[in-house]
Amino acid sequence: MSEPKITPEIKSRDWRDRWYEIIFEADTRAGKTFDVLLLIAILLSVLVIMLESVNSLDQEYNVPFHYAEWFFTILFTVEYVARIVCARRPLRYIFSFYGVVDLLSILPTYIMNIVPGETQRLGVIRALRLLRAFRIFKLAHMLSEASELKRAIWASRSKIAVFLATVLIAVVIEGATLHLIEEDKDSGFDSIPESMYWAIVTMTTVGYGDVAPVTPLGKLLASIIMILGYSLIIVPTGIVSAELAHGGEKSKHGRITTQVCPECMREGHDPDAVFCKFCGGQL
User: Which of 67, 122, 193, 195 has a CB 3.0–4.6 Å from the CB of 179, allowing a cystine?
Assistant: First the structure.
């Protein structure tokens, strides 16, 4: 019986699969080592950007900072290209959450050479890539909790939208009323948008103090808004908490694996899953 013929296509697929396992997965020693080294590089690159923003350090170590930034940018560019080459569905990776973050983490340095300015400091978006630590260090229970929280927020979207619409209407009415009362009192309520700004700051209990009513009626209305703000600020928390409790009763709280689907690039699969529950692709 003749042995199966190994075609160039099979060799290419095997090569891609091996590198896919190293770059996208953390279940092997090589994959985990790659991801840990990548996390260290991300931390160092973010540290360089932060230190570069200190004027005294930037003046003294401008050249080392410049070379370090380009080193990390080139390193992440090579990694980004390698991910595209290894992915079975490159466009799925490019337009996935991590794919967009990976691209945005290298663009600022290149844009710096086209558009004058300190655009490279936008590279701190690389910190988002540290979210991969949950997968790398097999913190699957945290991934399960994160998935449950995301599900609860999405399930509460209609209630939250109604709440935000109510708050927006209240802010418009309060802003217009304060503008009418305080318009001629030189207290900062010169227009309805500025008065709405004050209403938002007051309702959220931030209270900058840059704008404040001076008339008795204005102060009375401000007191009502403050009390209203304290009563409203807890509503979104209650909505999401109720949905979390309701979802906890329905779910089995099963653990999820850290495997990434090679077809749709999504995570969050059950440990015994053979096919992706999002796209149906084989894991």
Answer: 195
- Distance between CA 203 and CA 222 in Å, rounded? 9
Phi-psi region of 186 (alpha: psi -120 to 50; beta: other; left: phi over 0): left
Residue type, 274: V
Q: What is the Cα–Cα distance from 137 to 99, expressed in whole angstroms? A: 20
* DSSP letters for 159-187: HHHHHHHHHHHHHHHHHHHHHHHHTTTTS
Below-50 pLDDT ranges, the chain: 1-2, 10, 250-253
Q: Please state, in angstroms and as integers, the Cα–Cα distance from residue 95 to each residue in 92, 130, 260, 264, following that order.
A: 6, 19, 15, 10
Is the separation of the CB atoms in 96 and 83 below 8 Å? no
What confidence score (pLDDT) does residue 266 get? 74
User: Distance between the two ends of the chain, CA-based, in angstroms?
Assistant: 31
Q: Does pTM top 0.85 for this prediction?
A: no
For residue 275, list its beta bridge partners. Answer: 282
pLDDT of 182: 86
Alpha-carbon distance 159 to 243, whole Å? Answer: 11
CA torsion angle for 247, 252, 253, 258 (degrees, to 10)?
A: -120
Separation CA 199–CA 36 (nearest Å): 47
- β-bridge mates for residue 282, sequence order: 275
Residue whose entry in the numeric block shows the structure tokens 């410049």: 66
**pLDDT digits 0-9 by tens, 194-239:** 899 998 888 888 878 888 888 889 889 888 888 888 877 777 777 7
Distant-in-sequence contacts of 155-160, Cβ < 8 A, 24+ apart: 155/243, 155/247, 156/239, 156/240, 156/243, 159/239, 160/236, 160/239, 160/240
